[in-house]
Specification:
The structure is a single chain. The protein is α/β, with parallel strands linked by helices. 39% of the residues lie in helices and 17% in strands. It contains 8 helices and 7 strands; from the N terminus they run ααβαβαβαβαββααβ. A 7-stranded mixed beta sheet has the order 3-2-1-4-5-7-6, with helices on both faces. α4 packs antiparallel against α7 and α5 packs across α6. The protein is globular, with a radius of gyration of 17 Å.
């Protein structure tokens, strides 16, 4: 199926209430420290307003965004990005005890093996502790290895806890070339109206200063969030795909 057709189907998803999309408590898996703000900040803010703040789990340490920097080696950059996610959570009103960092190596999140299984068990424990009925994962077609790996983790969690409802949220997948072919049937899902939360979502995204080119100055080839992605992320609706 062409990406153009998939994205068009997203725009036709029915607008549903928060309770219809994700009844009960939720756990959000974010591949990097910023994906939670880009893809789910409106969901997070809405859940908090509903009195049911989600557990937000940042899977990788985000240390690979500026590999050419000498002033910001991976360890320092990882700490910076962790603080940025904490600042973003504060902007949304997420309690500090609902934000977790697993610290796996950026661009090397496993899809199998011992560390993979240990991580899955940790996620399951967090879902149990927070009485979660839903788990949110990146869309399987987001074009980044860590996003795919976290999607696979979500499928493994679901296999071990079939009672969990699993939803996917797109980030980079929204920027795929229109003519690209992907293995995807016509998707089903919902749109959540997050217009009231857009100012808070914008503040959360702005908290990720290192990813906006405002922190690391000695890596001209380092990552910077592109405007065309930010434009897609700051729309009145967030997309949640039934998995």
């Amino acid at each position: 199926m062409r990406v153009q057709e998939v994205l068009k189907s997203f725009s036709k998803f029915p607008v549903a209430s928060f309770e219809q999309i994700a009844p009960g408590a939720s756990l959000i898996l974010s591949p990097h420290p910023d994906d939670e703000s880009l893809g789910c900040a409106g969901f997070i803010a809405t859940a908090i307003k509903q009195g049911c703040p989600p557990a937000v789990v940042i899977v990788s340490d985000g240390s690979a965004s500026h590999p050419g920097s000498h002033l910001w080696p991976p360890e320092r950059l990882a700490l910076c990005r962790q603080q940025e996610s904490q600042n973003a959570a504060n902007a949304l009103g997420l309690p500090s005890d609902h934000l977790f960092f697993l610290g796996l190596q950026d661009s090397a999140v496993p899809t199998s093996g011992v560390v993979f299984e240990q991580t899955v068990r940790h996620i399951l424990d967090l879902a149990t502790q927070h009485h979660c009925q839903n788990i949110l994962v990146p869309w399987r077609h987001d074009p980044h290895c860590d996003h795919e790996a976290v999607w696979i983790m979500g499928q493994r969690v679901k296999a071990l806890r079939p009672d969990l409802r699993i939803l996917s949220y797109p980030v980079w997948g929204l920027t795929l070339p229109a003519e690209k072919e992907i293995e995807e049937a016509v998707p089903a899902g919902w749109r959540l109206n997050v217009e009231a939360s857009l100012p808070a979502k914008r503040r959360a995204i702005e908290a990720h200063r290192s990813q906006r080119g405002l922190v690391v100055k000695d890596d001209p080839n380092g990552f910077v969030l592109p405007e065309h992605l930010l434009e897609k992320m700051l729309q009145p609706y967030e997309i949640f795909i039934a998995s």
